[in-house]
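Researcher: Next sequence.
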Amino acid sequence: MLSTIHDVPLSVPWIGTNRSIRVYHFGKRSCGPKIYLQAGLHADEPSGMLILHHLIKLLEARDDEPCGEIIIVPCSNPVGLAQRMQGYQAGRSDLGIGGNFNRNFPDVSALLGERLAALKNGGRAIDEATVRLALKELVETLVPKTELESLKKSLLGLAIDADYVLDLHSDDDSGVYAFVSNPEHPATDLLSRHIGSVVTVGGLNGGLAFKDSCFLPWRVAQDFFPEASRTGCLAATLEYRGTRDVRDDLAIEDAKGLIGFMESAGILHPTEPWTTQATPFNTSRDCVDYVQASVPGIIVFSTAPGERVSIGEEVAHTLNPA
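Model: Next structure:
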């Protein structure tokens, strides 16, 4: 499979410093659906970067061409990757102006509403192609004032018109699970099965996470054609286990799962029948919460991440060894 590689420069933060993000591009949008994949937005979560490295290699080894467009950014946050303090990778939040790297992405929803209303008043029919073009143009009008804003604009510009947006992360210690902005999208269960998700959590993260900035404009588009929010964009954060689960064997299998999803979603030509073992368990963010310990001590776990538990079953206890 043929690919093109190009570097997107970011705003210069200081004299003598230049950063860019490297983008791998397969296929053409005019041929079919578009999928956008990125990893390393939290730069201290290397699992996703390794998965996308192997995904690129697997795609390049194929003899066919995509049925649509595939854009991959394996290292999406050069700002965070450069933040090291005494041997510690401080990649979750910006040390310059502060804030979680996966928050406060631009939301062009209001601008989209104004654009579509003007088009409709001018007699134009509104369809998905019109929305995608408008989104691309609106992100281009954003004027970043900092390197971080430049990074967020660049990433959003690559993803905003995609049918599928997959943002790869990892937790501290967990199984594979996913957050999806719109759990009603018809491909949600398909994605969950192919990545082997233990649980898929539907709903918005809050704070304008990357996936939500890609999805939210489609809620506005729904005012102009009813199916927009359901089929316009499946945006998901994929949590691939823990930050120390960085192994080639795991990453290759995860990359194959993403290829399986792309084949099932019509982005790649099917090469073999896919059998997915995982049975997805879907829930909402209302069912996700922290557990507050009633006493101080060492937390001793009784179950492993990803295990199913019953109501009343012990998952951990607190021990004071003193």
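Model: The chain has one domain: 4-288. The first strand starts at residue 4 and ends at 9.
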